[in-house]
Amino acid sequence: MADPVLSVEHLRTEFRIGGAWHPAVDDVSFVLAPGETLALVGESGCGKSVTALSVMGLVPSPQGRIAGGRIVLEGRALVGLPEPALERLRGARMAMIFQEPMTSLNPVMTIGAQVAEAMMVHQGLSRRQAEAKALAVLDEVKIPSPARRFHEYPHQFSGGMRQRVMIAMALACEPAVLLADEPTTALDVTIQAQVLGLLADLKQRHGMAVLFITHNLGVVAQIADRVAVMYAGQIVEEGPVTAIFSRPAHPYTRALFAAIPRMDRDAQDLAAIAGRVPSLDAMPTGCRFASRCPQAQVGCERPQVLAPLDEAHVARCHVATAVRGNWHQAD
């Protein structure tokens, strides 16, 4: 792997509940190389968005804090940086696409002004220069009739077009890292496919690293190079996309795959994962998935660690590690 453009090491992000601090992200580590897409997958409430907000330095204070770990962007440590220094990096070297574009765009500013603003702030361009470049970026993300729509407002755009505007804003200053937080969740499948294709094309053209947050495994198969499966604030499995899809090891990963409807069957019962993600103030000391896991056994009450299964494929489950080890011995 090339030298990472983003490195997250043992990240711990906490929130205050009832006067005590509880981790929403606990001992999370991953790296991103230039031009690589890492998909962060899991149910709602697993800590995916908090991980992205931690990287961006947007954890709300004073009720939230980064309590431990390191975040390194292009060799520069971000944890502990003063806010003015982080502001210079946001939108310039790292950018984020948020889940709902209608609430992320300023309703009283034109689309063109919002895209141009980042270039004026981070690149020191004049308004005329920034607007000319913004027009080119809107054209790059395939906004139809960009010269006319440049002066329109967010409410005049469809959901898919607003998402393209968000992508344009994120790419305006050609960041090294793009964090995309469920950017296709509210879109129909046709527009979703267009947005995914657009992101893949722009990533290849600009050489960005992408952290793609989603709960949709179909999207993962289409866009990711590697996959990290997250549950209850921890990464429980990580590996190349081909390994995760062909040999999912952690029971939670397999449960996610089992919940996907099969297109090759006329009638089927939809599978669901029993129970729910534990709350921040009631995390078990052992395996956090044990209460929902059909394979739970002796040893699951102990804390689990990420252990290697194959080259570049790890899982946080002593049962999965033992099973895979037996396979290797049989081979």
Top keywords for this entry?
331 residues; alpha/beta; eight-stranded mixed β-sheet; four-stranded antiparallel β-sheet; 12 strands; globular; disordered C terminus
Describe this structure in words.
By secondary structure, the protein is an alpha/beta fold. It has a domain at 253-331. It contains twelve helices and twelve strands. Helix 8 (189-206) links the parallel strand 7 (177-181) and strand 8 (209-214). The protein is globular and about 65 Å long.
Write the layout of secondary structure elements.
Blueprint: E1 6-17, E2 20-32, E3 37-41, H1 48-56, E4 64-73, E5 76-77, H2 83-89, E6 94-97, H3 101-104, H4 111-123, H5 127-140, H6 146-149, H7 159-171, E7 177-181, H8 189-206, E8 209-214, H9 217-223, E9 226-231, E10 234-240, H10 241-246, H11 251-258, E11 307-310, E12 313-315, H12 318-330
Parallel strand pairs: 3-8, 3-9, 6-7, 7-8
Antiparallel strand pairs: 1-2, 1-4, 4-5, 9-10, 10-12, 11-12
Helix pairs in contact: 4-5, 4-7, 5-7, 7-8
Instruction: Tell me the distance between the termini.
Output: 28 Å
Number of helices: 12
Radius of gyration: 21 Å
Instruction: Tell me the strand percentage band.
Output: 15-25%
Q: Can you describe this structure in just a few lines?
A:
The chain is an alpha/beta fold. The chain is built from 12 helices and 12 strands.
